[in-house]
Amino acid sequence: MKKAVVIGAGQSGRGYVARYLYEKGYQITFIEENEELIKLLDEDRAFSIHFYHMDRKPVYIHGFRVYKTYSRQAEAAIADADFVFTAVGEQNLGDVAKQLKAGMEGKQKRTVVITCENGINPGRVMRTHMQNEKIEANYVVSQTAIFCSTVVIRGTRLDILSQNETYFPYDCDEFTDPFDFNGAVPIHDFEKFFKRKIYTYNCLAGLISYCGYVKGYEVYGEAAIDPDVSDTMDQLLAELDPCLMEYFGITMEDQTAFSQKALKKFKDLYILDYTIKNGRAPYRKLGPTERIMTPMRILMDHKKDPSIMQFVAAAALVYWEERQGKNGEPMLEKDPITTFCELNDLQKDDPIVKGVEKYLEKIHQNREHVVIQELL
Ligand SMILES: NC(=O)C1=CN([C@@H]2O[C@H](COP(=O)(O)OP(=O)(O)OC[C@H]3O[C@@H](n4cnc5c(N)ncnc54)[C@H](O)[C@@H]3O)[C@@H](O)[C@H]2O)C=CC1
Ligand SMILES: O=P(O)(O)OC[C@H]1O[C@](O)(CO)[C@@H](O)[C@@H]1O
């Protein structure tokens, strides 16, 4: 039996990765840092994954083990694992590397580490952290990109609601073995593949979540069908799609099919998701290679109007201002514009910063009733 460790037993760890492992009969060990979650997993030893459109029978996951990060048992599980999957958020991979360092000391068998995080190349981020930790054991790093939305079912202890999606694209440039997951698709040049997802699909997700948040929406799909948000997305895509077509060297047909598929999904009210969940970690999403700033720069490089993306950046800053200290969001140590400049290595008089600052003020002035199309 192949042995898999899943670091991070949250929505994707237990609700997405676990079902591929379960289907193929892997031994599953979760490693978690949240003690409350560990307690529930330890007490229940099982949970169900339900599917949004009721188009698949619930999957009942059981027979797994769960350990606290850095515990003796967690280290032993890492030492014994064939595969380690991470589902912790890219910003937490440095800590995962430390856990792997402790668990892989003297390990003989090869470990395949697969990141299940968003980013443009979280696999590389993981590898760099592992190199910095000077892990000497035999390992290869791969990554997947998750197109599947997964949320906890509120009012249950551990149950999950997810899409019936069986598509597991994975980076096959370093991990070259055949891979037995249902829906596994080997992909070369994964960074290009991931960038296309982040700059199209997650760019729209960023717009919906931050604009939806400032407009007072909790449910993501309701934000996506709001005419003000929806018109703003159409306006953005009319300019962004042709730029991305050129940027990625693909056909317009391919690019519009990709962006329209994302829009259709995000407007599907059966796919219950939340603006707060999709907006989490604004400091990561406001970074220079991410879903807001790179599409903004691509638009500018093509002499197109970056205003909508500047508005999204301003909305993300409002989200951060208001959500700091809640659900693990870090405090804003400086004012939002200084923070934005520091994240992106920009001066305060840069036209991008001026644009974001203008929209930040407008959102503040209209905080109780934000109409994007009037403020743009
Ligand atoms: N939930 C979703 O619909 C999707 C999630 N993803 C990606 O999946 C990854 C995880 O996201 P979710 O599962 O939604 O988040 P989540 O917050 O539900 O789960 C993350 C879990 O990791 C744990 N954790 C954090 N740092 C840790 C560490 N250093 N060691 C051990 N455990 C740690 C947290 O306590 C939490 O239980 C993210 O990178 C996200 O971008 C991607 C696409 C869809
Ligand atoms: O942590 P991130 O980057 O928001 O990633 C998770 C999100 O990505 C998505 O797949 C698209 O936004 C959402 O379904 C999910 O909430």
TrEMBL record:
Domain Mannitol dehydrogenase C-terminal: 189-354
Domain Mannitol dehydrogenase N-terminal: 3-154
Keywords, in A-Z order: NAD, Oxidoreductase
GO biological process, one term: mannitol catabolic process
Catalytic activity: D-mannitol 1-phosphate + NAD(+) = beta-D-fructose 6-phosphate + NADH + H(+)
A Pfam match: Mannitol_dh
Keyword Ribosomal protein: no
One term of GO molecular function: mannitol-1-phosphate 5-dehydrogenase activity
Residues that span the membrane, as ranges: none
Superkingdom of origin: Bacteria
Coiled-coil regions listed: none
GO cellular component, one term: cytosol
The protein's name in its UniProt record: NAD(P)-binding domain-containing protein
Organism: Anaerosacchariphilus hominis
